[in-house]
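User: Quick one: structure for sequence A, then sequence B.

Assistant: Sequence A:
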Amino acid sequence: MPETLTIPTRRTAARIQGAGLLAISALLLAGCAPAATGAAPEETTAAASGTVTITDNHGEIEVPVNPERVIALDNTTFQTLSDWGINVVAAPKPLMESVWPDLAGGDEVLDVGLHREPDLEAVIEAEPDLIIGGYRFQDYYEDLKDIQPKTIEINPRDGEEATSELKRQVEILGQIFDKEAEAAETVAAFDTAIADAKSAYNGTDTVVGLITSGGEIAYAAPGEGRGVGQLFPTIGLTPAIDQAAEDASHGDDISVEAIAQANPEWMIVLDRDAGTGEEGATAAAELIAGAEALQNVPAVQKNQIVYLDPTFYLDEGIQAYTGLYTDVAAAFSGASS
C-alpha cells in the first residue's frame, strides 16, 4: 500500500461505513434523481454515449463512455485526465492542487480529502457516474463500490511488468473517454523515451537508485524501489548495489559509507519531500553534497546524478515516467558526448 502523505488536508472528514453509508447514499441519490420527463436523446446524460466493457484490477466491468460526473481519486490518472480536458466533480484536492489546479477546480469540485481519512459523504454528494479509485485509495474500494457500483481500479498492479501496466492504464482511460488516439500517442511517447534511454546507456556503468526523505538517504532496490526501481529492468541498468527491497515504497536503510563502497558511476534519486512540499525539508542534492563519504564516488565527482522531477512523487503516472526516461536519456547522452 502506498504510504500516507504529509500534505495537510483542508478539512477532517468522517469515514462512513456499512449500513449507514448505504442508507445515506440511497437517500441522496434517490432524492436527486430526475423524474422521467421524456427528454430528447440529446438532453440525456452519459448513458447516451453508450457503454464499454473494460477489464480493471478486479475483472470485467461495464462503464459509461464519456461519463458526465467523474470522481478521480487515483493520482496516477490525473495528468491524463488533465491533458484530455476531463472535468471531475470530486477529487482529493490537497493531493492535486499544486500540480493539477485545473482538475481541482473551484468550489464546484467537492473535496474528498486524502486517503488517510477520506470524506465519503462528499463522494455521495457528488452523485458520480464513475469513480476512478485505486492506488492510495485502494483500502476504500468496497466503500466506494457501495456508493457507486461503477467504481474501477486501473492503477499499476503489484507483481506485473511495470511499463505494460502504465500503458494498460492509459489505454483503458482512452476507451472510457473516447480518447483512444490520444492514448496511443501517450504510449508512443513513453516507448520512445524508453528506447532513447536504452540507446544512450553504455551498458556497463553502475547505477544506484536512492530515495531521500526527512533528511535521510535510503536505498531504492532495482525493479522494486519506488519510481527509480523500474528503470533497472526496463533499460538494463547495471546495479551498483543489488539486493532485494525490504521497503519498496520508502526505501531501505543504508549508510552513506555503504553507498560509497559500491562506488556507483551514476545515482538516480527520488526526493519525496520535494513532492510533498515538506516545510523545512533538506533537498536531496543538499543531502548528497553534505555527505562527506560520498564526495569521492564517480557519480558525485562527475556530477552524474539524475534527480526525478519534484512533482514525480505526487504523479507517478505514465507521463511522469516518460519525463524520467527522457531525463535519463539526456544525462547518459551528455556523459558520452
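Sequence B:
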Amino acid sequence: MMIERLREYVGAETPTGDAAALNAFADRLGTRYAELGGTVRRMPTPTGDHLVADFPGRGPRATEAPLLFLAHHDTVWPIGQLQGAMPWREQDGAIHGPGVFDMKGGLVVFETALEQIAGRDHRPLRIVVVADEEIGSPSARSLVTAEAKGVYAAFGFEPPHPNGDLKTSRWGSTRVRIEVTGREAHAALDPASGVSAIDELVDQLIAVRRIVADHDEVLCNVGTITGGGRTNVVPGSAAADIGFRFVDPATEESVLRAVGELQQVRDAQLAVRVLSNRPAWQPSAATDELMAKVIAAGRSVGQEIGGAAATGAADTNLTGWLGIPTLDGLGPLGKGAHAVHEQVIAATLTERADLVAAIIKTI
C-alpha cells in the first residue's frame, strides 16, 4: 500500500513555482488528511499553496502541547522528468523517481504512521506542508514560525543521513542575488561609452570569494549567472544568485554584512538583496533530550536510531533556531537527492512509519 501511494505521489510532478501542479497535489493531501481525521487549512500564495493539518489528541494526552511535523510537496524536477530521464522504477529493493527521496517518501511515511496510531492515546499533531521549500521557503517562513508556537517538539521528513541517522542541527542557508546595471554600447564602434555589467559582476563575484575566504566554515555556491545578449553589444545588465551556508549566526551576520556592503568597481549600479534565509540551527540540550526519547521510541519497535549534525538546510532550521526541540530526517533511507539517480530503499518506508508511530505514541 505504501509503494502504491508513493507511486501516485511521484506520478504527480510538482516543481517549485508551478502553482497549478502544486495546488492539485495539495488537493490530494488535503483530502487524505481529512480522511485521517485532520482539520485542513490552505494558505494561498501565487507560487503554490501551503497546507496545514491539525489532528486532535486522544485520551488523557489530548490537552498536551502538540507535536509539529514539517514537510514539503515541491521538488526540484520539472514537469516531464518522469517520462524522460527519471522514470518510476522498482529494482533491487530500491524505488527510483523524481521526488521519491526528497520528499514524497516522507509524506507517505507520515500518513502511514497516522493509520498505525488510530485508536491510541497521543498528543495533538500538526503538519505543515510547504510549497517552496526547495528555494528556501521564502513565502512560508512566517507560516512555519507561526504554526510552531506552543508546540512540544518539531520533526522534519527530509531524508536522513546515509546510515539512517536523524539530523540534530543544521547549518544556516541564505540565497543572495547580486544585480548589476551597466550601460549598453556598440562593442566595436563605441566601447568606451559603455559599461559592462558582466565585467562588473565578475569583479563582484571575485570580491565575494575574498569575503568567504576570510571566514571559517562557510560554503558558497554561485548557482546561476545571467546577463548580456550579443557579442557586439556591451552588456547592460547581469545578475548572479549565490547560495551561502553558515555554521553559526555570527559568521552569517559577518558575511552577509560584507556582501551587502560591496562597492562597484566601475560606473555601474549595484544591488544586493537576500532572496531567502534560514538561520543556523545549532546543537542544544533540548534537542539532545528529544533525541534520547526518540532512541527509546525506536528501540520499542526494534530499531537503533542515531543522530548527527547536517550541513544542508530545511524548514527545521527555523524551529531549531527558535529553541524548539527539533529533529529532522524521518524520511525513508535512500540516496540521490536532487540527482537523476534519486531513490529510496523500499523496506525503509515501513520501518520509518513504525518509528514515527512510536514517536507519536510515546513522546
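The mean pLDDT is 97. The longest strand covers residues 172-181.

User: Thanks, that's what I needed.
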